[in-house]
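Final report, results section. Input specification for complex C-07:
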Amino acid sequence: MVKESHLWIHKLIYIYSPKTIPIGDGWWGAGEKPSTEDKTIHRFVVKTSVEETEDLHRRIDQTRFTDPLEDSRFNYGFNSNYLRRVLSYWRHQFDWEKQVKVINQYPHFKTKIEGIDVHFIHVRPVQKAGQTVLPLMMVHGWPGSFYEFYKIIPLLTKTDSDAVFEVICPSIPGYGYSEAPHKKGFNTLEAARIFHKLMERLGFTEFYVQGGDWGAFITNNMAQMKPECVRGLHLNMVIARTDSLGQLLSLVIGRYLPFLVGFTKEDVRRLYPYMEKNIYDILRESGYLHIQATKPDTAGCGLNDSPVGLAAYILEKFSSWTDLGNRDLEDGGLERKFSLDDLLTNVMIYWTTCSIIPSMRFYKENLKKDFKTRVDRVTSVYVPTGLAAFPDELLHCPSAWAGSRFADVCSFTYMPRGGHFAAFEEPQLMAQDIIQFVEKVESKSHK
Amino acid sequence: MYKELALALGLGTVVALVFLKKRKSVLKAHDGWWGVGACHQGPEDDSIRPFKVETTSEEIEDLHRRLDQTRSFPSLEDSQFNYGFNSKYLEKVVSYWRNDFNWRKQVDKLNKYPHFKTKIEGIDIHYVHVKPKSLAEGTRAVPLMMVHGWPGSFYEFYGIIPLLTEPSSPDDITFEIICPSIPGYGFSEAPHKKGFDGVCAAHIFNKLMKRLGFNQYYVQGGDWGSLITTNMAQLEPNAVKGLHINFAPPGKAGLLMMLSILFGRRFPKLFGFTEHDVKRLFPTMEKLVVDAIRETGYMHIQSTKPDTAGRGLNDSPVGLAAYILEKFSTWTDPEFKNLEDGGLERKFSLDDLLTNVMIYWTSKSIISSMRFYKENFSKGLNQPHAKLPVYVPSGVASFPNELMHSPKSWVTQKYHKLKTYTPMARGGHFAAMEEPQLLAEDVQILLQFKLLYNDRSLL
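Structure output:
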């Protein structure tokens, strides 16, 4: 009798407890795995040298320019005429030593996890009386870096809210100052587990996570792997499109009867015309994804040798993904939202670390044949979630669909402006949204 | 009264059909202007100037400098060529290129055939023109234009040219060969205006043949060359007497194609499928979809952002070599992806491979070569030339390792006068360079087929 009731209780618990995805384990260092691992956290300072700058200048000086097609603007990719201006700035005005000081304004660290050095910055808050300090990990994407968060960090480490944040921004292994995995198979699940281990090593048992681009997938996985550790998940890229029959049908109906499928006016504005926004624009903008998901070593080879090539490749995304209309501008609209100093600092992080190739490999490791059926794609997320839907994000997800992936949506905000690189472009708006989301979660949990 | 009406309708229909058929059969092309700025009024300079490929010590020193400053990044353990060009083998290639490859000697080799340039529609068109050294009594050399593709060049034909201009057998036909460079590739000037697609190239090449004094000629091509020569035949069916291609990708997906994909595995004979056809097409998901996705990343990025994709490659010779030679590996045999060295030197010499890369490097044409993809694909797949069949006598050489396989029944959907369809014994995408003997034999077969079946209009 007692045994049977145990079984029933187990069954009940299983049905009502959130499903998690397996944590797994890995080894990414060169060669065989040793018996012990060095778990110390080392202080790290970004450095540069005269040789590094001279080498860069030499390569910029030997750029072989070609003319763009007449009147092609940014529709064929990065316009060569505007590229000349960027290069001239990079060569003669950009001060890498000064930028390195800017990068070093926050403390950097490295620690070995699963065989590779993982880099992160760790910024402690300015705590006012009565404020709770909440740890927050913010994860970047491609072709970004931890540097994208430099404008938003001060808005989170010093707040007027009940909460103030202790911010940790790691570099995804293979990006920037984090060592690249030496073995095949390093995908977002592996990165998520490594970041969990990092937070554990830093002494955090509960924390918030925030991400966009790959960061959105990684933080998503973190919430799925160990929901007990993730207090809340905030995403500026809403990854809830499942292309299920239900979603596809609502796309068809939603054009004419939006209220029937839960679409708001803003949803309709962002989703339609369907073919243009969901098919053509995506096809036009996903060439990089296709080649990186199949031949990353080839795609990145020339970019690792040519800073101009690297800059054109990366900055083209900062143009198109901030506003697709930028493709029709002679200068790609880059300097409307970003400074050349900031844009080139991000490029220099890829350049000085030779990380463009491993950064591209991440696409291949994740976009395998099983990318729709992989365990994390078919499992929901049960931690409190805050979604910030920016209007110029590449693919829009209506709030009505958020529930198909996220079981506990605490806030869904239609942001007034901003594109893919939200933290970089609209730090104020993003910080506001994170804070209001966290306030909601904290007040709920105190009840 | 009704009788008259019926007659009028009947006649009207017949006239309309004839009219429509006539209009449908010939592709129309307008003269373009691809030079800088506005089109000049007045006659164009149509002189033909001899051209010599040249190099300088500065050019070679610059190349060496860039090779010496290569920043390589190690490939993942046990990844061979599955993530793209393998870093270990790339180091070998770079070392050979830097220390053993002799560009001056290769330039001499390039110049062993006469080169020319002539301005057409505002841009300089480069071509190689090889006349046979000796002709048998009473015969004429048959003019044949051979068009390359991407990432190839006119140089791909250097192995096959002597087999066609000096055939060993007295029964073989002797050819006079013209190998142009597609505008934007190699030594042909790149178009300065948007919109230069395969039909525009075909129109220019037809003009070139006319300018050289040929009213009737044959054409051969693979990769883009196959599309361009097909367009040439569609544009000028009276000038193009025969068309030979070694690449015939499936055109529009018609009903027959769909049915054959659905039922061809069970009932191969119904669709004329051979064992080889079945092997190449089924399982359909794997062979037609997954394999295609795996190998078309370059096509996707070049069709959308060519200026970005080519930017780094125009500055980094190593990047350029990796990008181009990866294709010479995978497109020769898909199994080569699993080899540490990509199997490159099994079918090609490093000298030949690097000479082709040097043509892109010295002419700075990688970006303009990539733009051709955008110009052809961005208008969609429903272009007039894609809907029109080809009425010129055609021959297809189907190589076993070609990227996309088209069984005979699919080819006849577009090529209505298919005379020969030859499953080749071996070879991949770069057929002229890899198997020049086999390709030359098949060209001869097509022409002799025509001889046999009475079409002696040219010979």
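Chain B has a mean pLDDT of 91. Chain B touches chain A through 60 residues (CB under 8 Å). This concludes the modelling results for the funded period.
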